[in-house]
Design brief:
Number of domains: 2
Keywords: Membrane, Transmembrane, Transmembrane helix
Distance between the termini: 20 Å
Radius of gyration: 22 Å
Pfam family, one: MFS_1
Structural class: mainly alpha
Number of strands: 0
GO molecular function: transmembrane transporter activity
CATH topology of the largest domain: Growth Hormone, Chain: A
CATH superfamily of the largest domain: MFS general substrate transporter like domains
Protein name: CP family cyanate transporter-like MFS transporter
Strand content: under 5%
Membrane topology: Multi-pass membrane protein
Order of helices and strands: HHHHHHHHHHHHHHHHHHHHH
Amino acid sequence: MASMADEDLTAADTAASTRTTARRPAAGAAPEPDAARRQRLLLIVGLVIAALNLRPAITSLGPLMKEVRDDLGMSGTLAGLLTSVPTLCFAVFGLAAPRLARRWGPAAVVCAGMVAITAGLAVRPYAGGTVGFLALSALALAGIAVSNILMPVIVKRWFPDRVGPTTGIYSMAMSAGTSLAAAATVPMTDALGGSWRLGLGIWALLGAAAALVWLAVARSRTARTTNAADRQAAPTAGTAPAGAGVRITRSPTAWALAVFFGLQATGAYITMGWMPQIFRDAGVSASTAGVLLAMTMLMGVPLSFVLPRLAARLPNQGILVIVLAAFGLTGYTGLWLAPAAGAWVWALLLGVSNCAFPLALTMIGMRARSGAGVVRLSAFAQSTGYLLSIPGPLLVGALYERTGGWDLPIALMAALMVPQAVAGVLAGRDRTVEDETGPAAPTA
């Protein structure tokens, strides 16, 4: 599944390492010139505004799902399909991102991704039917998918001496965009006359601003230099990329990581797509339901800094997996027993549980010894994981429509925490995929 992108990913990883060495300033080197500082500032602005756009297409929809379904005549099953579209797009279009970046350069692809987000968000409320709404949602999500994959690549390539702080800024912006869309969509809809179409479509303005910034980045000297270096680093015909000896599908740890990643993504997208509806059906107002979802998403801001650092200090990350699963099980139990009475507590607990995402990314980096091994493991775990997560939101929508309530869907969400914890404990063991895999077949 990851083989389509392995060669390009490995070549890009090699090129990034070369540029990292070349850019590292020598001791006593003069400060970078004003032009370079302006260029880095432009890139920082670009990263922040792009990250702000990576989730509003998803989290702005949840608080208005009832209005969208009623107006478009959308069944619960189709609404569940809509909440599954993000993971499908991330799995399918994410695989194309490295190859597109090799051809056009990462900055140009991110710019195109921002344009796709803008077009999808601006037009989908006026598509006139469920099919058009789904198709234009997929367009916006395709833009998110390629940008989502390339953001860490851009951080590594253009900020090799500030990877940690830059990643922190980017992660915080993404969490902020997620929370902002969840909290502000209903108030903005009310301010715009109560039209859900305007309330969803207004987020296209943020995408348009990002597209303009990334157009400037793509035309900059830094981007052109990066593209030229990538083309020079491309493997020649008949040669195998570095790290081809790792047969990732033979690694139990790789499969455990893929399952863990997929199940945590299932929980996250069920939460983003359905939690506001659960609270609204329990008697919570639409605006409060949006704020509750925002609080759940906002938990990712501080914990995305704490969890990776803590995980890196532990030889085995299983204990962290179990703690997060315990938060999730408690939150789902409360949501089942008293959704309105303890709404703020359940939202907080589920927000902590959903922070399994940065933990999964950290474990991917720790379960391989070489850079090429990390690239292959990341491509396999994420693409496979996103594919595994597709049925979850769809099944929740179908169960909700069939039973007319949330008892069975919430029971399913809670039950999925058990295999997630088991897979996470297996993935968190102190070993690498290189220890578990044999040599790959010879390359022709």
